[in-house]
Write a structure and sequence with these properties.
18 strands; Rossmann fold; six-stranded antiparallel β-sheet; 40% strand; 2 domains; single chain; 7 helices; 21% helix; alpha/beta; Tumour Suppressor Smad4
Length: 301
């Protein structure tokens, strides 16, 4: 239970003309719930422009960061990842309304929204702090990209295919040299994303850890490894024809031999808000279709 919110930023992202009308309808419903709760709404200007809602006032990200005390994000997990990174420095918590497919972090279904959003704006929610990564790409001794990631940092081969050869160092100490299709450094949040499909473990969000997962390594002895989240990790490309580094699959940099991808835990966190009674294991059961032999809705035997 928290204090009621006073100002709510509202974000949505169009991913194709086919869903424009449905997205606009869902956005109208969110704005109506926010208004009914007596909360001031701040519509992000990109959302207003994309949906051509020119009769409504739009606000910049900086204005939202300074004035909003919560953000409601309508979209898929990709939309949520981008907004979480943008607002992390402002410490604005986020409520995710799922308008995508899987919805691990946009975990409120559209059908559930009318029931729970007003309650959450009134202060009845569960808060969940998530680790954020800060990373940079270094080429010829200069930083060419500096950005953040909530899910993962991935080094992989490019469109030409082939193996990537790299060295991994942890706090300056060499851990291994490897040839693989790539390597994933994932937070607990990202452990259910690309890392999971590469046979990495699921990390509970409360764990202070990271997981390093090779993608199709050229040796069967190489396995995912869990690391503490207070270390600095460097991935140096030693041989590559065509490779790139991606941060949440949204920020990219091409890589050449000798380039270094350096990653550490950010000083900022992302705060996700869930409906009262939220349970992480229930989310895993639902999203991963785990079978639980129990009639108990809480999953108890």
């Amino acid at each position: 239970m928290g204090a009621p919110f006073q100002t709510a930023a509202v974000f949505a992202k169009i991913r194709g003309e086919s869903n424009r009308s449905a997205l606009a309808e869902a956005l109208d419903a969110i704005l109506a719930i926010v208004g009914k709760a007596g909360v001031r709404a701040m519509l992000h200007d990109d959302t207003r422009d994309a949906l051509e809602l020119h009769g409504l006032q739009g606000h910049s990200l900086a204005a939202i960061g300074e004035q909003a005390d919560v953000a409601v994000v309508l979209g898929g997990d990709g939309t949520m990842l981008g907004i979480a990174r943008d607002l992390a420095a402002y410490d604005v918590p986020l409520i995710g309304i799922n308008f995508g497919r899987l919805g691990f972090i946009t975990d409120i279904a559209l059908g559930q929204m009318p029931e729970v959003l007003g309650e959450m704006l009134a202060g009845r929610y569960e808060a969940d702090r998530r680790t954020l990564l800060e990373g940079e790409v270094i080429h010829a001794g200069a930083v060419v990209l500096h950005t953040h990631a909530l899910n993962d940092v991935v080094v992989s081969h490019g469109a030409a295919g082939g193996l990537v050869e790299f060295t991994v160092r942890v706090d300056g100490i060499s851990m291994y040299n490897q040839r693989a299709d790539g390597v994933i450094l994932a937070t607990p949040t990202g452990s259910t994303a690309y890392a999971l499909s590469a046979n990495g473990p699921i990390l509970h969000p409360s764990l202070a850890g990271l997981v390093l997962v090779p993608v199709a390594p050229h040796t069967l002895s190489n396995r995912p490894i869990a690391l503490p989240d207070d270390v600095e990790i460097e991935i140096e490309l030693t041989e590559v024809r065509d490779a790139s580094a991606s941060f949440d699959m949204q920020s990219f940099s091409t890589l050449a031999p000798g380039d270094i991808v350096r990653v550490r835990r950010s000083a900022h966190c992302a705060t996700l808000l869930h409906p009262a009674g939220y349970n992480y294991f229930a989310t895993l059961r639902q999203k991963l279709h785990w079978n639980v032999m129990s009639s108990d809705p809480h999953g108890r035997a």
